[in-house]
Amino acid sequence: MEQAPKFSPTLLRETAEIALTEIKRFIEPRLAADLSLRRVSAPVYMPVSSGLNGPGPAVAFDLVGSHDRMEVVTGLDRWLRRQLERYDIAPGFGVFTVMNALRPEIAETATTSPHVAAWAWQQVREFDAGTSVLKELKGAAGAVYEIMRDAEKMLCEKFPHMTHTLPETLVTIGESEITAGQPSGELARSEYEYVKKHQRAAYFVVNDSAVDGETPSGRILVWNEVARCQLELAEILLYEPGADAPVASVGGNIWRDRLAMQLFHRDSILK
């Protein structure tokens, strides 16, 4: 088995909060510059009738003075795609926002929380019959992972006692390859075994067995030696023109708290 990278002691809580602020200051302008995105303000809730929330069940409530029933944001992919149309964004450009969502179906564990904080983004793309779905996903994943790696380099410069945790190489692999040969065939367990065994790389795990109509997607996974588990740091999805927006786009989410957990050498997310 390959040796895991060495981890330095956990940052103090106060230092971790300062470091998290530094990450925010670094990642947001890099998203704007590297992916040609403009920042938009994210809603905290939206009308149930909009159909732009998701995924998962949402906390709903009646808003005083409104006839519409509202629901707390659970995800902003469809809402951001609507902004692409609203601002008439050209191909190669897009939007991003800072999302604070509430997903009541998610348990509070060391690596998950009902409160989901992320940098959510969408970029307009032009697809034709010759477009490679895998190439589009890999290109976006590579750009996002480079931003995360550079954020870690910045932290290590500002906090010299920290060490690097993100592998230099991002390897693209299909879900079918990860589950092949695993006795259970269960994806989460197979990912755990695979990433644990091959710790010297990060993995962009692509849903290569998606059925017709399912959104092509992939997730960036790394091994966290402190928590002894794989961590999903980001997801990338490819959207065809639809009811939410008449344009094709690539986008996704960078999970803020899991990224901080990895970079700060923690065994749990900040709460």
Q: How many β strands by DSSP?
A: 11
For the record, the CATH architecture of the domain at 13-34 and 98-263 stands as 2-Layer Sandwich
Structural class of the secondary structure composition? alpha+beta
Series of secondary-structure elements, N-terminal to C-terminal: HEEEEHEEHEHHEEEEH
Strand content: 25-35%
The CATH superfamily of the domain at 13-34 and 98-263 is identified as Bira Bifunctional Protein, Domain 2
Helix content: 25-40%
**Mean of residue pLDDT?**
92
What distance separates the N and C termini?
33 Å
Given the C-alpha coordinates, what overall shape results?
globular
Report on the architecture of this protein:
With 271 residues, this protein is of the alpha+beta class. The chain has a domain at 13-34 and 98-263: Bira Bifunctional Protein, Domain 2 (BirA Bifunctional Protein, domain 2), CATH 3.30.930.10. It is built from 6 helices and 11 strands. The chain has helices spanning 13-34, 77-86, 133-158, 175-179, 187-197, 256-263, and strands spanning 37-39, 45-47, 60-62, 69-72, 94-102, 115-125, 170-174, 202-206, 217-224, 229-239, 248-255. An 8-stranded mixed β-sheet has the order 1-5-6-11-10-9-8-7. Strands 2-4-3 form a 3-stranded antiparallel β-sheet, with no helix packed on it. A hairpin with an 8-residue loop joins β10 and β11. α1 (13-34) packs across α3 (133-158). The longest helix is centred in the middle third of the chain and has 26 residues, at 133-158. It is globular. It starts with 12 loop residues before the first helix and ends in an 8-residue tail after the last helix. The model is unreliable at 1-5 (pLDDT under 50).
